[in-house]
Write a structure and sequence with these properties.
The complex is a heterotetramer of chains A (308), B (510), C (365) and D (321). Chain A has 308 residues and is an alpha/beta fold. Chain A contains ten helices and twelve strands. In chain A, strand 8, helix 7 and strand 9 form a beta-alpha-beta unit. The chains are: A alpha/beta (308), B alpha/beta (510), C mainly alpha (365), D mainly alpha (321). The complex binds adenosine-5'-triphosphate (2 copies) and magnesium ion (2 copies).
Chain lengths: 308, 510, 365, 321
Amino acid sequence: DPALIYDLGGKFDKSFNEAAFGGAERWAAETGGTYRDIEMQSEAQREQALRRLAESGSNPIVMTGFAFSSVLEQVAPDYPDTTFAIIDGYVDAPNVRNINFSEHEGSYLVGMLAAMASETGTVSFVGGMDIPLIRRFACGYAQGAVAANADVNVIVNYTGTTPAAWNDPVRGGEITSAQISQGSDVVYAAAGGTGVGVLQTAADSGILSIGVDSNQNYMHPGQVLTSMLKRVDNAVFDVFSAGTDVETGSFVMDLASGGVGWALDENNESLITEDMRAAMAAAEASIASGETVVHDYTSDNSCPVSVD
Amino acid sequence: MELRGISKAFGPVQANKDINIRVRKGTIHGIIGENGAGKSTLMSILYGFYRSDSGEVLIDGKPTQITDSLAAIRAGIGMVFQHFKLVENFTVLENVILGAEGGALLQPSKARARKLLTQLADDYELSVDPDAVVEDLNVGHQQRVEILKALYRQANILILDEPTGVLTPAEADHLFRILRGLKEQGKTIILITHKLREIMEVTDEVSVMRRGEMVATVNTADTNPSELAELMVGRKVLLDVQKTPAQPGEVVVSVRNLQVIDRHGVERLRGIDLDVRAGEILGIAGVAGNGQSQLLEVLAGMMPGTGTMTMNGADMDLSLRRDNARTRREDSIAHVHEDRHRCGLILDFMAWENVAFGYHDRPEYQKNALLMDNAAILEDAKGKIERFDVRPPNPMLTAESFSGGNQQKIVLAREIERNPDLLLVGQPTRGVDIGAIEFIHKRLIELRDQGKAILLVSVELDEILSLSDRIIVMFDGKIMGERDPEQTNAQELGLLMAGVVGDSVTGDAA
Amino acid sequence: MSSRNMPKWADVLLVPLFSLVIAFAISALVILAIGEDPIRAMELMVTGSLGSTYGWGYTLYYTTNFLLTGLAVSIAFQAKLFNIGGEGQALIGGLGVALVCLYVPWPNWWTAMIGAILASAVFGALWAAIPAYLQARRGSHIVITTIMFNFIAASVLNYMLSHVLRPPASMDPATARFASELRLPRLADVLEPFGIAFSRSGPANVMLFVALAFCVLAYVMMSRTKLGFEIRAFGQSEPAAHYAGISAFRIIMIAMLISGALSGVMAVNSVMGGPQRLVMNAVEGAGFIGIAVALMGRSHPIGIIAPALLFGFLFQGGSELAIETTIPREMIVIIQALVIMFTGALDNLVRQPLEAMFALGRRKS
Amino acid sequence: MDLATIVQILESTLRLATPLLFTCLAGLFSERAGIFDIGLEGKLLVAAFFSAAFAFYTGSAWLGLLAGIAASVVFALIHGFASITFRGNQLISGVAINFLAAGMTVVVAQSLFHQGGRTPPLSGNARFERIDLPFADALRDVPVIGPLYSNVLSGNSVLVYLGLLAVPLTWWVLYRTRFGLRLRAVGENPAAVDTAGVSVVRMRYYAVIIAGVLCGIGGAYLSTSLAAGFVKDMSAGRGYIALAALIFAKWRPWQALVAVLLFGMLEAIANRWPNLDLGLITLPNQFMAALPYILTVVILAGFVGKAIPPRAGGEPYVKER
Ligand SMILES: Nc1ncnc2c1ncn2[C@@H]1O[C@H](COP(=O)(O)OP(=O)(O)OP(=O)(O)O)[C@@H](O)[C@H]1O
Ligand SMILES: Nc1ncnc2c1ncn2[C@@H]1O[C@H](COP(=O)(O)OP(=O)(O)OP(=O)(O)O)[C@@H](O)[C@H]1O
Ligand SMILES: [Mg+2]
Ligand SMILES: [Mg+2]
């Protein structure tokens, strides 16, 4: 059977891990198959969780989160017959499938929407843990906002420097309040479970928010501008469907391949004007064709627009 | 008021056995008995602080259930405990109203209480500043607060548990005046003490307790001190200890201008000078709390002081920057602490471990540089237990499973068998039965006869008189005078203990 | 804690045992309440932790942690000091391990292990030293200060891992991996020469033997040396220790330094023995479990071995439970809480009826 | 720093100080009565969970509040049972309470909601509404006072005001009522209270129950006001910070308010500027997070005035040895 290990935010973070869970569930529903999954409680348990699944014969094993990289590097060689898939990480081993997303591209799109929807000309970003991966979101978002409105002011904050940053809604809410007092009227949360607090505070204070990873538009209908979709669900679904034959190597899921995108549904229809839709369509086409290149923060650890 | 068939056990200790006692209304009734006879326990039961295992209480002829202190208060009983029950950082007023506020809000209660207190103060010579914080008051005044508490609750029966133990004679006299005044107002007073003089002075009737039992109740007018003493200890008191005259030798320890201020900033010793010679017992008499305990602790290196102290000619460091109790032991000073439960023993340690306690770093107890030689200690302990007739003679029992007298023997065995040049002894026979007392006294004399110096502190005048070769009386941290036991008596010492030299009272005792 | 009314063996064995039974019974009720089968849960825990050498590999790994933290709490308890700061001391000990493993070119694993033990002991001891000093000199309540130091330690580690020790390319708040020569031999390696096959996956390693050796050493120290005598005396009665000339300052400092050092050494197991790098929260609450272990083991250096194994079993069994059932891993936190409550705070609930029973028995005979 | 920033920091301070305030006052009642309470964290956590869970089921934040209080009081009674009735070690009992709460909340949440130890997000009446104080709108434009009144003071959850009222109320109860006199006395010298005819056990139970109620409100605030639902470990050490504030305040109510506002402000500042640039040095987030604990240790060390706890604190009251 295939198996899935979630990162510390937990299976029900409404975002990244929940997307993975959604993919696994979809696979189970469609194929009638069964799978195992594990939520860890602490950093120190990563290795045990991974080994436990490998020991008990699960194959392939998908894990969500860059933080597994270092552990998988150790574990993968011990189980040569098991295929591992890591989302957001990179491990150079023959039995590992590395899946990465072009979050900067998706973030670019929602950044444009944010700038277009903003009345104050100030938009903001709440990141989870302050790491290059999340800066990639921030950087894409800022580029998109600037592209839509050259005078836009982008405020960027991170929740913390440890995994606890993924699961601190109270702090997320407070940071959002601070951003609102600085004039922001659209906030983008790329912070796992912390984002729940960001979206909540935004809704409470009557400003717009942007969800991440999963489609979070439903959480506050009419108050979430859109969600940056990161199709972790598809990634998991693909691996589970391929089963033990899953291809190893590195795979990038970008806008062109449908790996990232933005959400439009009945909850946010009214917020997205015709102009916005048109702008989105143009931008998507331009990025997919390679005409517009969104700078990837992690390629050189820098951003053309400030994201500190 | 009457108590019938009261019994109370604390675990294995039977503190009260089938006690019957009647106290007539409007009298002062004394209860005497040795330490540990069960006096406090009995009164605590009457006050509902402890619950008796069996027996009943009758007040004005009516059986009364005294389940807790509230019930006792309601029955009109007030009690002044041996150890005051005051909230030290509250004011007098707050202490007085605590539990009897008379309303949910404090301000009106306080106003009411303030008025009543002034009145009580006038009626009974009980003046205390209602706004003073209790911990700033001296013991005499604290005791007045306790009495006021009881009167404020309109107590008709007032119990005082050893009220004079901590008082100067002048304060005690003042207290007795108060008590007589209360009696005239029709209150009933129960006075617990083991001082015969006080019984004779103020009581109308007296009951005697011995080892948890009530042995007699007599009219004070019909009895005399020696009869009471006999009743108390259960046989003719042989207070004379067989001993030969002392042959004092060299000065072993010499103390000059010793002063001590304790942790709370209270002056405990105000310039003590004394010498103890080899082969003599120097007894220190005094009311508890006049600095005797501190004197022993300073000499034993448990408490810092100023002044000079030489031991066998060598200077000791009184500041305790270099010295401590351990180095004093190395300088051949042994110490039998007055509180064997708190200090002298580790109750949870076995007897054999207690025998090494304090000397556990001695070379004879070490196997090598790292390990102790437990077998050697055990062997040593067996010998000491045998020689000091500790019962049961089992070194593997924990110290707390021995009776008080046997615990004291363990301590003495440990300290005396070290053959110290100077032995400091505090209250050697407190809470110890008669047989053990004789044994302990004999051992102390023996040590003296071996040419060792002994400094003895005791609140028991008889003990001081019969053991000492010289007697020093302490009062308020000072030495009031020195007497030869052959040429003095309890009366004279009593006056000195009260701070009376010749005919004048020193200090601001009153 | 001792009692006149009961034989010592009953006090040492029966009281913790009954407490444990109550704690387990309540836990079973909780499992039942959330709709799971406690018997099956127990079976799963037993097979998962003791049913294979893979399980044993983890059980004994956790046991090693708890032996060391349990010992740490015990030594402090013996001096009547409640060191609740084992968690922080172990975190800082982990920092010591990481520093010597990363920056000292050790020739082989065992020199590295000795170096790491020394470093972690020093780091842990230093972290305990400030609360100890404040208690000894200024009377600051050691329970409160050690709690505060746990949080401060977490912040220090958090800062070190996110800003100082994290390799430039890495996104994890964790140090780089140590050189592979420094990997401690696991039980599989140790048992191989004896022809015993043991799973290579479980991280139990030579530190288990080091921890057991520390237990024996601590036992000898407490029962056979002057220092142990003085620590016990001080713990039983501070005034008596003063009377005997035992310096309170010295005993508080030494007991806490030993305690902190032992907590620190625990990190050698969980850092060098486990992930081979320092990660966030490498201690995983072992500092607190040490309290439960010490309470059950009556603070006896040998007495804590069985409870440490019990908690190792619970810890490993608990993670199996989380995988195999819908019972979350936090179930073992509940069990841990109940054990601490019943053996530590509600001791009298078990003791009083037992004492009454013994008193009754004595009266009859 | 402009006024808007200051106003935002103060707003945030008040919000973040509120759970600390309730918890700190809880500790004050308990410890003033001689019962040490390091189980504040656990009570806060368990209250946060149960109020969120009940608010979710009933759709009413007020019912959630009651459930949170009930849960917290149950935990307080366990503490009382161990430390008053069975005269156990209060510190150990507190530690156990904290673990029990940490485990219990997740296990129950998982079994009820299957969301990894969370409750579903709360909305509408399941959360406490914000209340606008009178004249908030009218005064908004008055310089300085306006924003302070209209933004900082006004527009908070009803529980924030309850917390602010609890301070004078606590002071009044403690120093102006019979109950307060007895409560303080029982923490200083229980034997005095006992011999005065007042039950020590009863007084101490009252105290721990009040502590339970206050922690319950604090926990409810956390999950149904400050946040919109429960997440695992959401108390995040606030119980310990409250304990620190209690020591900081030397067990006095007004000072407790000052202490929690100070600690709340530290948290607000750390949220606003993760790395606080002071010109000469940059203080990392972690330093700000550790500051309450560091300050408390400094206070405990007695370098800044001595913190003397209630004298009978931590000791079970034993009449017969
Ligand atoms: N709370 C207690 N727990 C256990 N034993 C006690 C307790 N109180 C008193 N005892 C024991 O009961 C016996 C009687 O003690 P009690 O205090 O009544 O004597 P007393 O006559 O008042 O003596 P003293 O003159 O020393 O005050 C003693 O053996 C004492 O050790
Ligand atoms: N007969 C009496 N003599 C002296 N004091 C009394 C008497 N009856 C009641 N009191 C005192 O009056 C006060 C009020 O009694 P009440 O029964 O209301 O106290 P309580 O219920 O213990 O107090 P609280 O409700 O404040 O905790 C108590 O302090 C009690 O001690
Ligand atoms: Mg007495
Ligand atoms: Mg009432």
